[in-house]
Hints:
The structure holds two protein chains of two kinds.
Chain A: E1 2-6, H1 34-53, E2 57-60, H2 74-84, E3 90-96, H3 103-116, E4 121-126, H4 133-136, H5 143-159, E5 165-168, E6 173-177, E7 191-194, H6 198-207, E8 210-214, H7 219-234, E9 241-242, E10 246-254, H8 258-268, H9 270-273, H10 279-282, H11 290-297, H12 314-320, E11 323-326, H13 328-342, E12 347-351, H14 359-380, E13 386-387, H15 395-408
Parallel strand pairs in A: 1-2, 1-12, 2-3, 3-4, 4-7, 7-8, 8-10, 10-11, 10-12
Antiparallel strand pairs in A: 5-6, 9-13
Chain B: H1 4-12, E1 20-23, H2 46-53, H3 57-60, H4 69-86, H5 96-99, E2 107-112, H6 120-128, E3 133-138, H7 145-148, H8 150-162
Parallel strand pairs in B: 1-2, 2-3
Amino acid sequence: MRAWHFSENAYPYLPPADSYRSIRVSLPNRVYDPAKGAALYDRFIDEWLIAEDEGVEIMLNEHHQTATCVDPAAPLMLAALARLSKTARLLILGNPIANRRQPVRVAEEMAMIDVLSHGRLEAGFVRGVPYEILPANSNPVRMNERQWEALDLIVKCWTHHDGPFSHEGRFFHHRSINIWPRPIQQPHPPMWVSTTSTVGAAQVGAHGYVQATFLTGFDATKRIYEAYRSGWREAGRGQDVPIDRLAYAALIYVGETEARAHAGAEKLLWYVTANKVPLHFSNPPGYVPVAMNVQLARGAHNVVSAYGTKQATVEGAIEAGTMFAGTPDQVFQQIKKHWDHVGGYGHLLIMGQAGFLDHDDTVHGIRMFAREVYPRLKDIFPDTMASGTVEKSNPVANRQHASANRADGRHA
Amino acid sequence: MIGQRPAEMATKSPERFRRLVLVGPVGIKVGPSDKLDIPDIYALPESEVQKLLYDDPERMKPDTAKMSDDELAAMFRARETLALLTWEPWMHNPKLRRRLQRVAAPALFIRGESDGLVSQTYLDAYSRMLPDARTLTIKAAGHMPQLEQPAVFATAILEFLGE
């Protein structure tokens, strides 16, 4: 089990929410004070480096035209972290690849960071949430097709070393590709892809990339992981899906006392409560399949609105599996319950800073997790385990898991 | 059909058009670069888009509850097609403007008076780029006068075609 400190670099100093229509896309940047923003960048970088000191890896992401994540050029932040950090793995999750016009340029950026960091890059890719469409002026139709053509092209950019090659695909066209530098990690840096659809997860599994899912709780995560494992197996990658192929992102706050944990967790809910986005930004044409839009028109729950519809109380979010919060014991149990329910994963992406959670409380949460919870997770969920052993018997992993459960004293 | 397509066809094969009718057509860029000629319907709530589309949105807006699944699917698929055709450059083809002088047939540009997408200024500028064109504004209609004022619309077209 590997844990990652994920900071979205949010800018929380906003006018009252009823004074604007959307926190994303259209909120005027006049409300952003660059001096306060500079102090926030300093602080968030410090927190990443504290996480590194505690043995936790570093993760960042990219969004555009939004106060929820002021990191619109994540490779720039990653380049800074590549020089400031020394040992942590550096996960960008991710490059919004369906919205990038030149995948070759992305391959160059990632290769450069891999070299700058001496091989610590974990190269993550996301299709891009729907509110990224307008900022990128990117067509929402055929994004999946663009994403997969771009990913295949990027891997080829990294692994082709014999001079220029050409690419004439459906969406991207290059006559002479020969990137410098090439990555340190061979054959290329680890690939991560996030998706919340089962069809997408099966594709990620077929490629063997790490699949990440964000705030999808108990049952949706289980479905996504099952789809990943099916895709993996059907592509002939073997019966066992190592747990390090699967990642889960949750709001996580560990406090010394239950009261302190609860107070910290309340502040993390800023992501849920502040994410005010109207429907026309969250569901542009073609972003979800026609059949799903028909269901939405019939009143189905809109699965594409990332945080907005999630539970907005600490208890509700814990119940939903989107948040793990409490004392070290409580958080360990919550994670274990979720882990068991979904079949197992090897990466925990910790959304450990949000809104008005200040520096001291953020650091307290990082340290309490790293010192009191993380060692127990690494012990009970070693990377040698396979995910989803319930579906297909895997005697070794099952025995390990069973004995770990017994040692833990909660499951006979 | 998006008016841009027949306008493009008429510039490519002018000899095959005897008369050309364009209704609330998009396809050209005439205004300044920092102002959209056609409002961005993807940056507006559906209710505001309906106000741009119709003179009487309450009467005209689609009632999804009464539509079959097939009809709904067709509507959503049409929205995807519209996005594919118009996303970038937004609602226009930069090359069309200087090709419009090739159109040989007499053209009629029609616009609903309440059309919130295609303004009168835009329609007038568009029509002036063709050698032989005139404009017609239909009252109590929006972007689709054929739906809101079908009788007036049909009469106007029949008269034009019969000339």
